[in-house]
Amino acid sequence: MKTIPIKLILLFSLLVLIYSCEKDDNLIIKEGYLKTVALADAKSFLRQSQDEKNSTPEGNFITSISDEINYEDLTNTDEELAVIDVKTKYKNLQSKVVLLNINNELQSVVVGLNPFEHSTETSFSGEMLITSINGNIIKAFEIEDNVFVAEYINNNTVHKNHEPNKNKNSVNETAKNCWCGMSNCNWCGELDEVIITSGGSPSPPSPYVSIAHMYPTGGGGGLPNEWDFGGGGGHNGTHNPDNPDPEENPCDKINELESDRAFKRRLLDLEENTSLDYETGFLINHNGSVYDPIAGSPNTDEINFNVSGTIDGYLHSHVLPNGNSIFSPDDIEALYLLYNNGHINNTGTFVISVVTGHGTSYSIIIDDVNAFNTFSQNNLIGDNFSSFSIGYSAQSDLLENLYGIDFVSANEIAMLQALENSGLSLLKGNSDYSDWQKIKAQGRQTVDVGCN
Amino acid sequence: MKTIIFILALLLNLSCVTAQEVTIKKGTKIEEVKKGTYYKTDRALLNKYLGIWSTKINDKEFKFEILKKKTEVDGVFIDRLAGKYYFNNKSYYNEPSSIKCHAKSNTIEVLEKGTLRFRFFDYDNDKLGVLEFELIEENKASWHLLERGGYRDESFRKGFSVPIEMVLIRKK
Fold it and tell me: Is the ipTM of this complex over 0.90?
């Protein structure tokens, strides 16, 4: 009888040992399954990608690659993801190449994010597009408050009819008609089925995506390995009409534009739209929408808009072949009419911007509202407006015909001269709208000047 | 002595007069732009557009006259194209203020292309528009009138008092 408890204890110990060994094996398998891509390998991958991009710059999916490689944590493992910022042909997406060794094989995907306006740094709402390095779409997700609410997969089956998401504050009006519900219809062509993955789930504290979503063989059992992809904030909502700040420091205003990611994204959208045969734009904080889309008629290069209440600015495109490379005199007149009709929420923060098919972008801010008012009375009303617009056009003609100055520069100098003493500042944007330089005409040249 | 001074003054004056006009053609390079000079646009380019263009609308004549305007800019003179129209027996057609249509761009490159865009003023509707004037043949042009862009309040009056699409023939 005494041997029975001893046997039971031995049996229990053996079971504990077996379980313990199995658990260790699992850990070994899992740790061997995922490996951080060594810096040398990541650099080699980067070089190869850059070579491929340079060999076919026009047709390549990736259009620019950062020189910097970041290593970012994965949950439940000490291994890390190698992350490289890139730009792709989907210019409005914040894209990264994400590298990981899985089963000793280097796996790469491009993760692109399109945050909606209400998205914040810690609570991501928007779209995530996962593609191969060549741009073949693998998956797309719609995410609300860090919760994956819809998944679009590429499984080569017949796609279902799907109501477009009308609550999306979509960038592009036409996007609302995409069958797959995404804001870019180009993505739908490769995505065949819609699966609603969750609804009403509690929001995770950070925007995580599982590597199982990113790589075809990702996962590997055990606890999930997830990456905090960082998300992105939408527009700040900017101005409080009850607490106006009419004479904001111009430097602050410019810095705000440079750091406003939603603003930059809308300009990237407009840049994409310069290939259309009509103008598009956004009214800022209009009719309950942070960026209320507007569009001109097909085959025209003019955009008309009406405003109810007040707005914080407007952005629009100029399309080829007839669109100007800078603001037109009509744009300046529109600014005054908005001001005069009481549609400007706060002259201290109001901004108008134009992105043109000539590859240029400009913004105007109001530095001195009294000077602007006086200037407008003298230049933008009735016959004075005709003189203003003729003066601008004649100056531009002179610069091109007599001084041999190119079209874009001639328009820029002519507009700067036309806006002299207007109380307005003209800012010139860089290619990704992250830098805005205040410019002035100096003789027949444009010079950058300090924001003050 | 007086005769010599007179001849020298005359020669000097003549040389000044001739120096005050320069014709701009395609590829012309101006080494130094001189104040007071009239930089004339190549007449052959302007001639494609200048004159009276007309058509009949319900037995009423519509005329659009394109004129050359010598315009002062920054102390020099250049040529720009302007226009005025006649429709429904408008009395202001012959008034100087009736010239309210101006070609938006008058560069050599644009003039060569054969399509001009005018800032058009509709007298009856008291509003501006955009006129696209395209040469179809030597003396034949299409007229296409468009709304211009920008903010429009409730008072905005859509449409024009003249036809928006026409084919015009130049009178000889």
Answer: no
